[in-house]
Amino acid sequence: MQLGTRWSVGGEPPRGLPEPLLEAARAVEGELSADGVDAASWRWTLTWLEGRPIAELDDGTRLEFLPAEGTVRRLDAID
Predict the structure, then answer these.
(1) Model pTM score
(2) Longest CA span, the chain
(3) In 10 A of CB 46, how many CB atoms?
(4) If you count Cβ atoms within 10 Å of the first and of the last residue's Cβ in the chain, which end, N or C, has fewer?
(5) Residue-range definition of the domain harbouring residue 17
């Protein structure tokens, strides 16, 4: 596993992330905003597993890029 970085909700994500992952992160952030959740202090944590980026939000929502399909698997936080 390769260590990544962190970025704030609504902030500038790290360079080099696949567009599907960026779109998925923006969608999650949009849902939070639409639901009235104050996530201004929340951050995404980016790690790399076998060359695949994985972004996890402070609430436990996890986005995994699947390069073979060019898609993102979303695992929502458990309440």
Answers:
(1) 0.90
(2) 36
(3) 21
(4) C
(5) 2-75
